[in-house]
TrEMBL record:
Gene3D superfamilies: M75 peptidase, HXXE motif. This is Efem/EfeO family lipoprotein. Keywords: Lipoprotein, Signal. PROSITE patterns: PROKAR_LIPOPROTEIN. Residues 151-376 form the Imelysin-like domain. InterPro entries: EfeM/EfeO_iron_uptake, Imelysin-like, Imelysin-like_EfeO/Algp7, Imelysin_sf, Iron_uptake_EfeM/EfeO. It comes from Sporolactobacillus mangiferae. It is found in: Cell envelope. Belongs to the EfeM/EfeO family. Residues 37-48 have a biased composition (Polar residues). Pfam families: Peptidase_M75 (PF09375). Residues 28-48 are annotated as: Disordered. It comes from the Bacteria.
């Protein structure tokens, strides 16, 4: 009797456990299927691998291991290149955001002394964008809606650059007003980078761009000349900041005005792309001659910043290019990569490139040709809108 009760009790326990075991088995099966589905997607798989490399980079950054930092920074770029086309086709809005942080990491990894603080910041931001990509749904909206979003994204980028322009102009102006020539020279290129990246927006506000960025041959009356280049001449040609206080105050006033106006600026897709094309054309024909920074000879800083700003336009236009113009998108993408690779030969730090006067004619011609190729490709993009 006792034995029969034990058997019955065991049967009851088994019956109660069957649903739980079945549920557990199903959950494991579903989890395995979900994992298999994730890893079989080349974009998701590539992103997971990129995250793994980024984690190694972050560990190296914590240890300040220079060789490992360079190694993993370059590996991130190699991994991104292996699957970026799939991201550009299916997730164009996420693509631009990843490029924004991946590219500076790669650029730093090619320097003899990478900026650790900046790489940490970009690596952390990249991690967030990779997580967003893993969770993202494929972009299937109408081109018109995508382009509206793209213009908004570009304007956000331009405003970020102008905010940084203001932030870096303030210490430069302070150094000028203090008469500190060496410090002002050191700080000069920082605001120039952000201005040149957002130059198409600045040029939309009438006299504001000439007031900030006019070269001496752009003005009829030299006594009315203001802006960066007037101060540049004082720093490198005169090696004196005597009487520059009023020009410094005017420069800060103008960039603050630009910051305010840019926040409410409206832009069409066609104007966005046309501005980029014109900027590249100017860089390839006139700026490449060394006339932009004729006293400091920091022209390569400006040229790279112009290309950075144009690349932000291209990235914003990708959703429209995906609609029947993928070959053009591939050509543009490869040309930006080609230009960046070329410029790495002359890059010393984020704000320092080779002195323009040390380049020979062949080197200048090579840079000009690469810029011209970019300009022509962006001109084809402008025809789409």
């Amino acid at each position: 009797m006792k034995h029969r009760k034990s058997v019955i009790l065991l049967l009851l326990i088994s019956l109660l456990l069957i649903p739980a075991i079945t549920a557990c088995s199903n959950a494991q099966k579903n989890g395995s299927e979900k994992k298999a589905q994730t890893t079989s997607d080349p974009v998701k798989q590539g992103t997971q691998k990129m995250k793994q490399i980024n984690h190694k980079l972050q560990a190296a950054l914590k240890k300040n291991d220079s060789e490992a930092i360079k190694k993993y920074g370059k590996q991130i770029n190699t991994q991104w290149l292996s699957y970026e086309n799939g991201v550009r086709d299916r997730f164009p809005l996420q693509y631009a955001k990843i490029e924004r942080y991946q590219q500076p990491i790669y650029a730093q990894s090619n320097l003899s002394a990478p900026d650790i603080a900046q790489m940490k910041e970009n690596s952390s931001a990249l991690e967030d964008q990779l997580d967003d990509l893993l969770a993202a749904k494929e972009t299937k909206a109408k081109p018109s809606k995508l382009m509206k979003q793209a213009v908004n994204d570009y304007l956000k980028y331009a405003n970020e650059q102008i905010d940084l322009l203001v932030k870096t102009t303030k210490p430069f102006v302070a150094a000028v007003k203090a008469g500190d020539v060496d410090k002002a020279k050191q700080l000069y290129t920082k605001p120039r980078i952000y201005y040149e990246r957002a130059e198409p927006i600045a040029e939309s506000f009438g006299d504001l761009d000439p007031s900030i960025d006019a070269r001496i041959n752009d003005v009829d009356d030299e006594s009315k000349w203001t802006g960066f280049h007037e101060i540049e001449r004082a720093l490198w040609e005169k090696n004196s900041l005597k009487g520059q206080e009023k020009y410094a105050d005017k420069l800060l006033e103008d960039v603050l005005s630009l910051q305010q106006k840019a926040k409410s600026f409206e832009l069409t897709p066609k104007a966005m792309v046309a501005g980029s094309m014109e900027l590249l054309e100017e860089a390839a024909t006139s700026k490449i001659t060394g006339e932009e920074e004729r006293y400091s000879h920091t022209d390569l800083v400006d040229l790279q910043a112009n290309v950075d700003g144009s690349q932000a336009v291209y990235q914003a236009a990708i959703p429209a290019l995906n609609q029947g113009h993928k070959d053009l998108a591939n050509q543009i993408d490869k040309q930006f990569q080609s230009f960046d690779k070329l410029m790495l030969k002359y890059k010393k730090s984020d704000t320092e490139y080779e002195d323009y006067t040390k380049l020979n004619k062949d080197q200048i011609r090579e840079i000009s040709n690469e810029l011209s190729k970019l300009s022509k490709l962006m001109a084809q993009t402008a025809k789409i809108f």
